[in-house]
Structures are given as structure tokens and as C-alpha cells.
Design a protein that fits this description.
Elements: E1 5-9, H1 19-23, E2 28-30, E3 36-38, H2 48-56, E4 63-67
Antiparallel strand pairs: 1-4, 2-3
The structure holds iron/sulfur cluster.
């Protein structure tokens, strides 16, 4: 079994303009202030591409994906 993708959010870097949850709403949500929140404690495999897409488009570098 290969390792799973993990997403890490550095909330101190998130400014809440929402590119992540606009591009990948199945992985990223928004809190009441428009900041990102992660929707899955364990990311389902079929959402890995979406997770990468959202993280790659965060201009603040607040999102990081790591294999395993
Ligand atoms: S794209 Fe980055 S800065 Fe913008 S809401 Fe998402 S995590 Fe926050």
C-alpha cells in the first residue's frame, strides 16, 4: 500500500481570498471569515489531484501537500 497524501494548512499564512476552495471545493472549505479549512482529516485517494491543485494555487504558500 503506497503512502497517502497529506495536506497541511498553515493558518497563520492564510489571508482568505479563497483560491483553494474555489478551485478544489471538495478538499478545501471556508470558515466564517473566509479562511481556509481542511474538509478531510484523512484525504480520500480520489481527491488527491484536487488537493494538489488547490495547494499549488495558494499564493501565500499556506498549503502544503506531502506524500505519506
Ligand atoms: S488560497 Fe491560500 S491564502 Fe487563500 S484561502 Fe486558500 S489557503 Fe488561504
Amino acid at each position: 500500500v503506497s503512502a497517502r497524501l497529506r495536506v497541511r494548512l498553515d493558518a497563520s499564512l492564510c489571508v482568505g481570498h479563497g483560491r483553494c476552495y474555489e478551485l478544489a471545493p471538495e478538499v478545501y472549505g471556508e470558515d466564517v471569515e473566509g479562511h481556509c479549512r481542511l474538509l478531510h482529516a484523512e484525504l480520500p485517494r480520489e481527491l488527491e489531484d484536487a488537493a494538489r491543485r488547490g495547494a499549488a494555487n495558494c499564493p501565500e504558500g499556506a498549503l502544503e501537500v506531502e506524500e505519506g
